[in-house]
Structures are given as C-alpha cells and as structure tokens.
Amino acid sequence: MASLPEDRAALVSPDLPLRANLSARENIALIPLYQKHFDAAEASHQAQTLLEQLGFASIGDKRDPDMNPSERFVAKLARALILKRPQLVIERPGAMLYDIPYPAFLRELASRFEGAPEKWEVFDFDWNRPLYDRE
Amino acid sequence: MEFLLNFVERTGAKAVGWWNATFAVLAFLTEVLSTLVRPATWNRATLDTIVKQIYFTAVQILHVYLVYVLAISWVIITITLSTARDVGLFDAATEMIIRVLLLELLPFLTALLIALRSGSAINTEVALMKVNNELDALSHCRVEPMQFEFLPRIAGGIASVIGLTVLGSVLTLFLAYFSIYGLSTSGFDAFSNTISTVFGIGVLMGLGVKCIFFGLAVTTLPMAAGLETPKKLFMVPVSVLRGMMRVFLALVLIEVLSLALEYI
Question: What are B68-78's pLDDT values in tens digits?
Fold first, then answer.
C-alpha cells in the first residue's frame, strides 16, 4: 500500500475493503456520522446523494459480497470522496476493476463528480501504461 | 538430554505464549476503559450502535432464553423442594432456591448462553475483520474501530447479561412462589421476607459485579482473540477455538472466585 499522509490523502485501494456487514450507503455514512457528528438520517442522505452523483444510486442497499467489481469500486470511491481530503489516490485500479476497461471508467466517474478533490492520482503498474495512453 | 531440552523449550514457549496472550487481553482492556471514560466516545452514533447490539445480543433471544430459564428453574425448584421435604428442611427451601438459582446458576448460564451465541460470533467477526483489513480501512477513514466496533459490543454484552439475568430471576421467583404456595397469597409475607434477607446490599452488589465481569469476559476475550489472529484465513477457526476456551476458563474462574468470596 502506498505510504501517504492520512490527513491529506483519501485512498481507494484493494487493501482497504468495505465493512462487509454494512451496505454501501452505511459504509459511506459512517464518515459523516462518526467524524462530523451528523445524525444517522443526515449521514445516510449525504451518502446516498454521493452515490447518485456518481451514477450508482441503486447500490445503496447492497452489501460488499452482493456487489460487482464496478459497484464495489464506486462504493469505495464514494467513501474516499466523503472524507473530503485534498488528495484522492486510487491504488492499483486494475486489481479492483478487473472486468472492465478501467481507465475510461475512471475518467467517466471523475467527470460525473462535481466537487472533486484538488488532486486525483492513480497509482498503477508501469506495464499498464498503454491502457491509459490508448484512450 | 535432548528430550529434556525439548521439554524445557516447549514449556518456555507455552509460558511466553500465555504471557503474551494475557498481556494482549490486559492491553485491550486498558484501551476499552480509556475509551469508556473519554467524553467524546459518548455521542449519538455510539449510543445507537450499543442499542443495536443489545437488540442482537439479548432481545433476539429473549423468547428462547425465557423458555430455557423456565425449564431449568422448574427442574431445579422441583428437585430442591422434594429433597427439602424428604430431609425435613422445607422451611429453608425458598432460601436454597434463591441462593442456588438466582445468585449462582442463572447468571452463569446466562453468560454461557451469550458466550456461545454472541461471543463466538464476535470472535469470528473480529478475526475476519482483521484478516480482511477491514479494521485498517476503518482506521484510514478515522472511524475508530474501538468506538464503532468494539465498545458497543462490550457495553451491549454487559447490559445483556445483566438484563437477561434480572428477567430470568424475576421469572424464577414467580415460578418458585407458585411451586411452594400455589395460587394462594398466604405465603407472600414469608416469601418476600426470605428474598429481602438473602438480597442484602452486599449480595446485590456482588451479583452486579459478577454480571459485569461475566459480560466483560464474553465480549472482550473473544475480541482480543480475534485481534490476535494472523492475517491468514485458515487461522480464523483457531482464533475462535482459543477465544472460546479462554471465555470458558474465565467464566469458571469468575464463578469460583465469587463462590469463594461469598461462602469461604
């Protein structure tokens, strides 16, 4: 896992899974609930709004084992975005999005999200560079 | 000579293993206590999670528990009354029932039931969370696992042991009264006098402390065992085995100590 200052960077990584017994919405809502002390209804609303912004409103009630790789990735991404840290780091996206052409998918998600952090960074293996250049 | 060396080596390794495990449990307990007394811990989200845990641990099994208490109490009360009648100690039967069932057997069996049902689940869940890096993910998001995952389970476990013991005791008292006096109200004074004699302040406090320790044992020991699990999936059953053995030993130790303090 990349070594990054935790207060500055929000990580989306295969090594940081979702909490398996919580739905996607509950996983995301944990952050406003515990960090910013919103009540449960407001935290849940914020989480659902974020999923809608990313175009995956329907995954709110799904738990990790019931999601496909793209849905799981989006839930992790939403959890990282709601942290509102200045930097977003997506680590080894190929390990999480192994069944789709992921550079295009990442670009599409980034374009959908309006309040993006200052900096989005993708850490990927060097041999995957041609996948990004192809677009 | 080689046999002796191997023996010393094995014994030493076991002693170090026990010491490490005890130290890990004590360190975990210290962290629990320090989180408990931190005012920031007690926000709405923590309280909501505690209520959920009490629901999962106590309310969901309430009907099963009450039937189980009813069956066991009925058997013990019947045996006690018949034996007391045979040896001419029927007057002491109420006190014997209260002492055996309410002070000793019910709290112990309640803790055992919660250990088997919730303790094993907690141990497995924490071990899987550790193996799957879920705890690291929570820490990365600044959602402290102690506050979100562990403390509510501990508080829920303690509240459940106390709550279920109280409910079981009330049910047993009704059953004892009806077994001794039937539907007549004539024995009410004598019965309530015996209850007040047995349940002095000291005994009540001792019972409360014992239930708290039982609640701590059935939650913290499985959690500590889960947290010790190496990040290998095949070690999860080993972790549960170790955790549940520790819970059993701790429950027996607490019961023996409470009996020794009360009667020796």
Answer: 999 999 999 99
